[in-house]
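Worked example 4.2. Below are the chains of a multi-component assembly; read each line carefully before continuing.
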Amino acid sequence: MATKYVYFFGGGKAEGRAGMKELLGGKGANLAEMANIGLPVPAGFTVTTEVCTLYYKNKSKLPAELNKQVAENMKKLEKVMGHIFGDPTNPQLVSIRSGARASMPGMMETILNAGLTSTTIPGMIAKTNNPRFVYDAYRRLIMMYSDVVMEKAAGIEPAEGQGIRQQLEHLMAAMKKARGVEKDTDLTGDDLKTLCDQFKAKVIEVLGKPFPDRAEDQLWGSIAAVFQSWNGRRAIEYRRIEKIPDEWGTAVTVQAMVFGNMGDTSATGVGFSRDPATGRKVFYGEWLPNAQGEDVVAGIRTPLPVNEAGKSEHTQHLVSLETAMPVAYKQLNDIQKKLEQHYRDMLDLEFTIEDTRLWMLQCRVGKRTGVAAVKMAVDMCNEKLITTAEAVKRINPDSLIQCLLPMVDPKAERENKPLAKGLPAGPGGAAGVVVFTADEAARRGKELKEKVILVRAETSPEDVHGMHAAQAILTGKGGMTSHAALVARGWGKCCIVGCAALEIDMHHKVMKVGGREIHEGEWITLNGTAGAIYAGKLPLVDPDLENNKDVGQLMKWIDTFRTLGVRTNADTPKDAAKALTFGAAGIGLFRTEHMFYGEGADQPLFLLRKMIASSGVAERRAALDQLFPFMKADMKATMLAMQGHPVTIRLLDPPLHEFVPHDPAMLAELAQSLGISLEQLNKRADGLRESNPMMGHRGVRLGITYPEVTEYQVRAILESAAELAADKAVKNVLPEIMIPVTVAKTELDDQKAIIDRVAAEVKAKYGLKTFDYMIGTMIEIPRACLVADKMAETAEFFSFGTNDLTQMSFGFSRDDIGSFLPDYLKKKLLPEDPFQTVDKDGVGKLIKMGIEGGRSTRPNLKIGICGEHGGDYDSVKFCHKVGMNYVSCSPFRVPIARLAAAHAALEDAAAAKGKKPGKKKVAKKAKKPVAKKAVKKATKKGKKK
Amino acid sequence: MATKYVYFFGGGKAEGRAGMKELLGGKGANLAEMANIGLPVPAGFTVTTEVCTLYYKNKSKLPAELNKQVAENMKKLEKVMGHIFGDPTNPQLVSIRSGARASMPGMMETILNAGLTSTTIPGMIAKTNNPRFVYDAYRRLIMMYSDVVMEKAAGIEPAEGQGIRQQLEHLMAAMKKARGVEKDTDLTGDDLKTLCDQFKAKVIEVLGKPFPDRAEDQLWGSIAAVFQSWNGRRAIEYRRIEKIPDEWGTAVTVQAMVFGNMGDTSATGVGFSRDPATGRKVFYGEWLPNAQGEDVVAGIRTPLPVNEAGKSEHTQHLVSLETAMPVAYKQLNDIQKKLEQHYRDMLDLEFTIEDTRLWMLQCRVGKRTGVAAVKMAVDMCNEKLITTAEAVKRINPDSLIQCLLPMVDPKAERENKPLAKGLPAGPGGAAGVVVFTADEAARRGKELKEKVILVRAETSPEDVHGMHAAQAILTGKGGMTSHAALVARGWGKCCIVGCAALEIDMHHKVMKVGGREIHEGEWITLNGTAGAIYAGKLPLVDPDLENNKDVGQLMKWIDTFRTLGVRTNADTPKDAAKALTFGAAGIGLFRTEHMFYGEGADQPLFLLRKMIASSGVAERRAALDQLFPFMKADMKATMLAMQGHPVTIRLLDPPLHEFVPHDPAMLAELAQSLGISLEQLNKRADGLRESNPMMGHRGVRLGITYPEVTEYQVRAILESAAELAADKAVKNVLPEIMIPVTVAKTELDDQKAIIDRVAAEVKAKYGLKTFDYMIGTMIEIPRACLVADKMAETAEFFSFGTNDLTQMSFGFSRDDIGSFLPDYLKKKLLPEDPFQTVDKDGVGKLIKMGIEGGRSTRPNLKIGICGEHGGDYDSVKFCHKVGMNYVSCSPFRVPIARLAAAHAALEDAAAAKGKKPGKKKVAKKAKKPVAKKAVKKATKKGKKK
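Applying the procedure described above to all two chains together yields the following structure tokens:
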């Protein structure tokens, strides 16, 4: 039997269903689902993603069998819709759209109105009695098709603004000028007919081929173009950012056209079953009368609110669909309710009203801001639509991160008048310098690491790289479903759209807003949650998490599922206290060296420098004597703040040379304080300089060569603990002393001797009967993993330092990867930056060896992680999987770690039930060798630019 | 039953035997063996090394049971010898000596003449009728005992030259002055008697205690002092250098004294059954009439040759024992022959003739120079005394290294007249600046890395650290068995002793020799093989290996046993050719970057710099075009030189910044050549600078970011191979292209694509029908070992780069370890420098994983090693053990690698027979937790100094 490449839907039933996204793409699968549950869906069929795979495998050729299957399904479509594709008297027009498993808005091609030819146009005119409509549809077809099919097929890469589409637009502008009109809609049917002729002549002139006049040719050209667009530069870039596998491919859905632009009884729109920005339970949408769908999404005309409930202060004066077309609205409202109950999630809908008749063109689970995601999950759980486990599973880390986003300081907002207001498309606050092009945003934002805000009249998929590099996006046009809004929301980026008060002068790189001129490079601040734009750089503050009840509720549910502990990395009492409010269960990493601050010669930083520049034990002890009270005060205050939660204190870790000042004045002061000449000091500093400091004299190596440095630190820790215990200020004080950069048990023994000696002295000094402390080690050098069984003979706990472990395992100096890692990621030599997410194949194997080795000696060995990975979602899940007891991360990332831990536990539970979670299964299946060459080719192209 | 702590020997039998070295020490075991085979050995007994262990375990207390066992054995001794210890009328004197498992000449204490007291002295005088002899023995006892027992027990650490011994020596000097005599022997019995009284008074004055006047007290004090000396500073230092475990401990042998200083019918001497310097089969020894053993060893009197055959041009005029005491000599000569047949090895003997009666005091397998070791092994094998396997096993790597030692260029020797000649105590040539103290030798030699030659009147164990740091040792006094000669020979160090022409003025730091004054810091050159001393710095050349027939024979035998291949690291055709003569079977590492040399702007180094400083592909290709002919010429010539042996060529490896010049003139020239400003060039150079270059942009990372760099190198390699194949200049040309610094299979795939493409082009260009090449990778980053199974999917061979693998596994930057590794070794946190010998526990585990992973994918994967470890004896054995196919090392080390490979294979064979080689077994057993605290204590002491 031949492989089934095409799946039909329409007439109240479908061959596919929502669960078949992998094969039919999101769009195709959901259209089938809607047809199945009896919603009004224009008939159509979906060519599967497998065909896309074959297309790239067979050097951009479609499989032969496809012809027959498409023909058969076109017949079915014609039967359901009652028109015939390419028929002179009763012609059927179709759209051809892409649809990947994951939504990639605007990244791939769409052709509308296919089927209009010199043969069918008369029939269409006869049928609609609306020549203007038909020629408008025809000129749109020519514009789209010549651009996305013909120009690409011809292999032409026109200069910016020189493409066929722009040339046709020039013709149209000329026509409008000649007719003395301003809007497209003011052109008459005859004007448009003339324009179509001009378009076709221009196509021959520029592209060397006539515009295809057979409906079949238009259909097949479009199908191929959609497949081709999967590997367009924009799509590849988008996938890279969104981590969508190249192998997935896209499906193509061919669907009967319905027209929202057939006059005032027609309309088109999009909607969300709940507010995607806030999560509020209200049907929320936008519509345009007498328009095609692209007009809404492209943001060219500012759309109207679908209903009264969804109106905001900005849209109060506009006409809603509810008011304009109450019958169609009621039907639409019923449908969105039905769909939400059916899908048990918030949905993003596209609809068209053709001459009062409502058609559903698309439905999919809607993108939402993080804040909205949390609110919806909590609400739906309270509504009994989903379980707590589902609510937790539904929150992805980015959503939660968005809830933790900084916002503009409310005090500063009260004191500053906004320049203008726009639509709050992406929440959070952001400040940055204004830039007007995506390239400039990328250059300054990515390369120069400046904070920039990209300001555009509207954004297009061409701007994605700049949008990604920007802190925030501000557009003058477009609505909440415009390209800018969709993309920004997807990334959880601050974004304001449709700020009509904005006048942008691209030529002079300046914008006028609120009576002010703001030039490129000047600071502005956005409140994306409120849509307010401010001049200058306003302070940002962290979000008021404690008062966000939804987040609070969600975090409680999260904690019911997770088994992995979450601690925090904190170096000050303030951080420690903050982390407690984020739900940290202790400090996993207190970095001694971070306590060295201050500017004066009596401040810790200076004293540390003095210690480092000391020569000989006596000088070093003198400096340590001065440092001691500071160390002790900070440690004691931190332990007090943690109120009996465990505190792991790491002994001095970094290469000493890091602390040697470069400033001549500081050097002079230091020399004076040490009573040596500047020359002598410089000589000592030179002696500390290293070729590869990351692998030099640091960590435990300092404690071994300078035992007194260990001694003073340990004394500070243990005296703090002893005093807190003696004062009964904190119950169960249990300092965990952590020795960094170790490679052998002997190092631990060497340091343990010092620690035990000091502990005995402290115990005696404070007259304590019992005095508990733990000695453990960082596991951050490959050898430590390899001899973990031995290390655990002395170490009472392990904490994986995956930053260093990744550096040494890869031989990648974190400070130097800039010259090659980008190429590695671009060429896919590595699946991801191993400093962001634990490299499971390599570093992960070492971690597993370390855990197995350690526990083989000490079965109850407490094991955690305290590198940057401890707050990375995927890495935390890995930590759960390999059996760590806890992760430790920066306070801000504690909630993410808790979420990841809960997800990992839920996946365990699902696996235990024999049902692997869907996503994983899919991802595995997708890893077939697909479209490799094409990807390579595309990558190369990208590189040349 | 009580543990047996004491083993008796004497009277033609013994409780111990030669195989019990572990328990009885070398001296005790061999004395027992000699007694067993009926040789004349003064009776005695040995206190076992276990007692030493207990002594340190029990805080320097001897086990209670020892008392009884010593008393019983003393009775036996008395019975055999016919005198009684401590008896007033018929007193027995004894010596108390140390004896560890391995010889540690002069490192521990010895007490002679114990048993002389106010009670026994009259008896001794009556018995010997020689008061002068008795008082001389007594004054020696007081000097030794007060120094090594009493002063140490009192815990006094006198300043240099202020010890009790020196104070007693001052008294003796004063006595000589008062009597107007020069030599000790000119003092009369009365003088000596007076002196003994003065000595005893001084002992009370300085040490606060009287000299013990009970024989028992002297005996026990001496036994404890010997045990105590195991952890003396000198002994510890010596063990560190010789890698002797601290846990072994020493035995103590108490033996009846016999006297070589009882007049002209008495004598003492040492001998070797073959010449220890050359290996020549001739009984070789030195003796002194009327002397005690220490006189020979200390080198105070220049000794005489034992026989005529052993005379050299320097000793021609001296009286031999053979002539002076023919009967005793004949007996001695028979004994040495018997012992050699019995031990099947060359022996080092000590004898004393007391009033014409010969006594054997010691025998042990003799130390020998490397050259002698090889000659003896080959000779003994030819004499059927040992098998070829034994001959091979008997050669340790240091011996072979000595055969490969540089020597003074013979041409230079012809042209320069020696300043003087001395005894050739340690072979080879050396040049260095003169220093006169051990401390200065250590400072300049070790710290400043200068080449120094230590010049002393005579050396003592106090000088060991300086001797170790020196290139060579030159003494004015002493013979071939003096301290300097023994120690230097053990280390294979160039050494000349007994150069009587030398006058050293320590005060002015100058020596007079051959009519010249040579000040500290001036260069001299020694030919240790001939004993010639030259002024100035003469050139050294490598030894004439090809003409050393013994080495050639041995290497042939070696190759019959080994299974591990040995290749060489060579970067030039010259090195390649040389390595072939050393027995290399191919090149395991040709470093592309080493071919960049020359000074002019048309030379490779400049062109490489130009390539590195290029910006963009076009500039880089232009520079590569210029470089290409040089690369190709070198590669082709090397492949030609190797005549079909495999050649592994590594692509560019080091961080590019290494090649950026610092010289302003060179920078200016470079900028000009690139057509850019100096400022621009500096900016580019800054861009190449890295925080941790060892983990930066290097190796395959260069090939990935600059594919053209790979392309040109590969083209040079493959065109060379193609041309050699086309010209039929070499059969079976098979270049092995090796990709460095890899961490993932994807990197190999990326580079393989380039290599395969270039190969196809080259194949076409030269019209070849077949064209073979291999693609492999260095395994030098930990991750590569962890994902070796994947790497082997693409790589056709692995070569472990253990230098980098050690760096990354330990996180030890090789350039920066100077600040901490010495402390690690001193504190024994690491058993040895992991850059010298593969760290088996950590790095070794990674290597095993790498091999297992690689072979799991590709069972016949060819695996080698090309780091420095490839020429390290222990590491090569490890490589054999883990199943590598070959090691690769510098040409000079190829013979060592071959030897190690043969030893490893012989050990395998022994293990297969169920007989583990003795050494290993012993070493394992020795790793009991012994004397730890004492060691720590001693280490601390050492540090304080």
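Take a moment to check your reading of the output against the notes. Chain A touches chain B through 48 residues (CB under 8 Å). Residues 617-642 of chain A form the longest helix (26 residues).
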